[in-house]
Write a structure and sequence with these properties.
With 449 residues, the protein is α/β, with parallel strands linked by helices. 37% of the residues lie in helices and 11% in strands. Strand 1, helix 4 and strand 2 (110-114) form a beta-alpha-beta unit.
């Protein structure tokens, strides 16, 4: 059941005549003492056995899963995300998570568990470790933002030494720190089944980032790695140097996220030197760094010969007009493999933005471009309006939409991007729409986001 609980209908826009309490869904008001059966019944029995509070939200989710199982579906994801704002949610604690683990144990229908934005902490992490040792159908586990610390990270990493089924693990936002990161790096020396690992925003230190880079010179299983926002000190860009060295030898990694690594032009040159030799990387994320036009000289030169890169995220750097011109020259005359480019908030003015739009007219492969947050002039607005109206740039493949006021063209922001829903899901509409997560759609790594 790869669904988000946010798929409720739109609320009425007519204000109520008098203040009233938030309506309680029927499932929340239902009598929890008479479960229908299946997983709900098992959950009820376990809560009674442990004198644990029965949570209507979990019962509701289990009812949906029971219905999916009755239809004969397999490969279901149990989604108990704690950040749903459209229905009353009591966040899952460590003890609640123990009950969920008992329900999942040896269940042949469920192969994914999403408990993002809950409060399972290190207590729940110990139960997750036991689940990974005993549940042999689980291929996706999302534990992002659950107050898991270094000790909990250590338990999960050690459990993965013998696990041969899990394909995708998200630890995003859990402060496992340098100690926990070292255990995960050590795990990758042993584990040969995990394909995608997200340890972004986990307060990793320099030592653990270098350990990941070192291990990946040998590991030939990991295809996607998120190392966003480590805690780094110093100006020598050691982490970037080591990751660049890794890319020279690794021919398996497809997706690499290096957001907020404090990468400057020197570090970008290190990465570009590696990309001349790398023949596997398709998605490179270096957003939120300190790269300027000089770094674009190196990247543009790489794009003239590289035939594997398909998605590049340069958002929130400072490449300016000169950097945009370097990229547009490479894309117009040489590169025919890049599919998506994001230059959001890069202090680019009309000249550079128009140059990028012109490159799309001669480059038949580049399909997605994201430009919001730069300095639009009349020429820019007209250029991208023309691209959209002539069909060269589809409205779902960019983050701007043209409109006309008093005969002048303007551009409005649209909620499209490479990874708009990496940390959150929308309150309505499709949670995993290709237009909002184009990077993951163009370069799919693993079954889940």
């Amino acid at each position: 059941m790869q669904r988000s609980p946010q798929q409720a209908g739109p609320e009425s826009r007519t204000p109520p005549s008098a203040p009233s309490a938030t309506p309680t869904p029927a499932w929340a008001a239902a009598d929890c003492s008479e479960p229908i059966g299946g997983l709900q019944e098992y959950y009820y029995e376990l809560c009674m056995e442990k004198s644990q509070e029965i949570k209507p939200f979990i019962l509701h989710i289990l009812q949906e899963v029971d219905e999916e199982i009755e239809k004969g579906l397999v490969g279901i994801t149990l989604n108990v995300a704690g950040n749903c704002h459209l229905m009353p949610v009591e966040r899952v604690t460590g003890e609640d998570f123990w009950i969920l683990c008992r329900i999942l144990k040896n269940n042949p229908y469920i192969n994914g568990l999403d408990v993002r934005y809950n409060l399972i902490s290190d207590v729940g992490a110990s139960y997750a470790a036991k689940l990974l040792q005993k549940q042999h159908n689980l291929i996706y586990l999302n534990l992002m933002f659950n107050d898991i610390g270094p000790e909990g990270g250590e338990l999960i990493a050690k459990a993965l030494h013998k696990n041969t089924t899990l394909k995708h693990l998200r630890m995003t936002g859990n402060k496992i720190e340098n100690k926990g990161g070292m255990f995960f790096a050590a795990m990758l020396q042993v584990n040969s089944s995990l394909e995608k690992l997200d340890v972004g925003d986990c307060d990793l230190g320099m030592q653990s980032v270098i350990a990941f880079a070192t291990v990946l010179t040998q590991n030939q299983t990991i295809k996607g790695l998120n190392l966003n926002r480590p805690i780094l000190y110093g100006e020598q860009e050691e982490s970037t140097v080591h990751l660049g060295h890794m890319l020279k030898g690794n021919q398996c990694l497809v997706e690499l996220h290096m957001c907020k690594h404090d990468i400057k032009n020197c570090g970008m040159k290190q990465l570009c030197d590696a990309l001349y030799l790398n023949r596997s990387l398709r998605y490179l994320d270096v957003s939120c760094n300190k790269i300027t036009q000089d770094g674009m000289v190196c990247l543009a030169d790489v794009l003239k010969s590289n035939t594997t890169l398909e998605v590049i995220d340069l958002s929130f750097n400072r490449i300016e007009n000169a950097g945009a011109n370097y990229l547009s020259d490479a894309l117009a005359s040489h590169n025919r493999t890049l599919k998506a480019l994001s230059v959001v908030s890069n202090n680019i003015e009309g000249e550079g933005l128009v140059a990028l739009s012109q490159s799309m007219k001669t480059n038949p492969t580049l399909s997605n471009i994201y430009i919001w947050g730069n300095k639009f002039d009349e020429a820019t607005r007209v250029a991208y309006s023309d691209l959209i109206h002539m069909g060269r740039l589809k409205s779902d493949n960019t983050d701007v939409e043209p409109f006309v006021v008093d005969g002048h063209v303007y551009l409005a922001e649209v909620s499209n991007g490479l990874k708009r829903h990496c940390y959150w899901t929308p309150g309505y509409g499709e949670a995993c729409s290709p237009s909002s997560n184009a990077g993951f759609t163009l370069v799919p790594v693993g079954q889940y986001l």
